[in-house]
Design goal:
This protein is of the alpha/beta class. It has 22 helices and 16 strands. It has helices at residues 14-24, 37-46, 63-72, 88-97, 109-131, 149-162, 178-187, 206-214, 231-234, 250-262, 288-293, 299-305, 321-337, 346-354, 360-374, 393-402, 426-440, 445-452, 456-464, 482-496, 501-508, 512-522; strands at 5-10, 29-34, 51-55, 78-83, 101-104, 140-141, 144-145, 168-171, 196-200, 239-243, 264-265, 274-275, 279-284, 308-311, 343-344, 379-380. A hairpin with an 8-residue loop joins strand 11 (264-265) and strand 12 (274-275). The longest helix has 23 residues, at 109-131.
Length: 527
């Protein structure tokens, strides 16, 4: 920090204040001191401070009131609150109100300087982001393909994050490229020549996750036949990427928090602390704040890691980028497999754009590869699209042969589409059969599950889907196996809709992709 920053220390204890001021004289700060809230407000009105160190316990007012005034008036300073060891909850509340960070008494000078440096970096990053006007150029960026406004914003944030040491928190649905974004931040940073270590917190048993992060010593647990370095050691000087971090066990989150705060960790079964210089990048496909509210993710860890947010858009939100990505994969896999494909037919592109792509880029990649492997030609036509995007005409003909002939078609609406008949709802059918089975068994879950030919756990899970107070559907006359009843209802719906899968799905109250999957599982296409 070569630039000198104006700093305001608000601390009512004279001895403690003198200690902090002695610390600050070692750094590039012009520090002023106030011992009351009123004096602090007066100083803020007269001087533009870059940083304020704010004790929350003041003799004349609460430190939170000063913080709220700074935030409300958009004063150009970052606030770092100082709290006692037993007041962590108050510190977390202060960060909710807008504090940049907090320090727990007592703290070393090094910890003070690191906290201030990170707070100033975050402030600078926010200022740069707010001033960005020019979009990124080109449709390729560090492995990403796309030129939509949403992706240009992503490219900008990656570039900004790469210049900082601050932790990055990536959010986005599965398949949007969170690890690719983490690698891009690393590769464009000054740490690019150091290790990039990725850990998937969802793919690792929680009993082994601690060893994966911190390492272990010989004999620490059964199977620990030798000392082993964890990601904390391997990523020293580089980047540690914690994918699906919201899946991490809450007990381990406390140990990770200390590592993030201090850079110090101890191997499992060991006693010797180790220090590691690491850039943390985290990612999740969940809403991290909802995980915090539900108690599954520590709030203090969230505020330590959620410094530089990076939200990746879903593929369906990227417009024409989808076609750029699809064409890239088509060229790639056609070359790999020795096929002649070079473009998509216009109708095929329309179908690709209309599909919601719940699996995002990963799903699109798999679909295009299936097309290339199972077909040949120069143009991808709609009949080449595999489920759930398309169903070959031959399969539709077999479906028409498979459905029962005696059921009359559903009544038509003025536009020719079949009217929705609630008797076709799969959920209501399941609810009616389950309730009838429970009634006939006198509430005996085991007997009811046996009559429905499902497991008791499946019966409980399905009952949880029912919303209390909903109007029940038509009551069934007898208990039948759920799978058989579902098959008959799907066949009847397809027949009523003349083989139109989208209308059949609407009639059944499910997504077309779900209907395709059920058709494949039940082999409904077989005559």
């Amino acid at each position: 920090m070569s630039v000198r920053h104006k700093l305001l220390l608000v601390e009512d204890n004279p001895a403690v204040a003198q200690t902090y001021l002695a610390y600050l004289r070692r750094g590039p700060f012009d520090a002023s001191h106030c011992d009351t809230g009123a004096a602090a407000l007066a100083a803020l009105a007269q001087t533009d401070f870059s940083v304020m160190l704010l004790d929350l316990q003041l003799p004349d007012m609460a430190g939170l009131d000063i913080l709220k005034k700074v935030i409300a008036e958009r004063l150009p300073c970052v606030v770092i609150v100082i709290t006692a060891n037993g007041s962590i909850n108050v510190a977390v509340e202060a960060m909710r109100e807008g504090a940049a960070d907090f320090l727990v008494k007592p703290f070393a000078p090094e910890r003070l300087f690191v906290t201030i440096e990170h707070a100033l970096e975050r402030q600078a990053l926010k200022r740069i982001v707010s001033n960005i006007a020019a979009p990124a150029e080109g449709d390729h960026f560090c492995g990403f393909i796309g030129e939509s406004l949403a992706m240009r914003a992503v490219y900008r944030i990656i570039d900004i994050a790469a210049t900082s040491k601050a932790p990055v928190f990536i959010t986005g649905e599965s398949g949007t490229g969170k690890e690719l974004a983490a690698e891009a931040v690393h590769q464009r940073s000054s740490r690019s020549n150091k290790p990039f270590i990725a850990l998937n917190c969802a793919a690792m048993p929680k009993d082994l996750m601690e060893s994966e992060i911190f390492g272990h010593v010989k004999g620490a647990f059964t199977g620990a036949v030798a000392d082993r370095d964890g990601a904390g050691s391997q990523a020293d000087g580089g980047t540690l990427f914690l994918d699906e971090i919201c899946e991490m066990d809450v007990a381990l989150q406390a140990k990770l928090l200390r590592f993030v705060q201090t850079g110090i960790f101890t191997k499992v079964g060991g006693s010797q602390p180790q220090k590691s210089d690491i850039r943390f990048i985290s990612a999740t496909n969940r809403d991290p704040l909802k995980e915090v509210e539900a108690g599954r993710f520590r709030e203090d860890l969230y505020y330590r890691l959620y410094v530089m947010p990076l939200a990746l858009p879903a593929l369906r939100e990227r417009g024409q980028d989808l076609l750029l990505v699809a064409r890239h994969f088509l060229q790639l896999y056609a070359a790999e497999e020795g096929r002649q494909f070079d473009h998509f037919a216009p109708e095929t592109e329309r179908l690709l754009l209309e599909y919601p792509w719940p699996g995002n880029v990963r799903q699109l990649q798999n679909i295009v590869r299936q097309i290339v492997l199972l077909n040949d030609g120069t143009v991808v036509t709609p009949d080449m699209l595999p489920p759930p995007l398309g169903l070959p005409g031959a399969n539709l003909e077999r479906l028409a042969l498979a459905v029962p002939r005696g059921r009359p078609p559903a009544p038509a609406t003025p536009n020719g589409a079949p009217a929705v008949d609630e008797s076709f709802s799969l959920l209501e059918m399941e609810r009616g059969l389950i309730e009838l089975a429970l009634t006939q068994s006198g509430g005996n879950v085991l007997q009811a599950a046996a009559a429905l030919e499902i497991s008791p756990s499946t019966l409980y899970r399905k009952r949880e889907q029912f919303t209390p107070g909903d109007r029940p559907g038509p009551a069934p006359r007898e208990v039948r196996p759920l799978a058989l009843a579902e098959t008959e209802m799907i066949r009847a719906a397809i027949a009523a809709c003349g083989g139109n899968i989208s209308r059949s799905a609407a009639l059944l109250g499910i997504n077309p992709s779900t209907l395709y999957r059920k058709m494949q599982n039940k082999e409904l296409a077989q005559p």
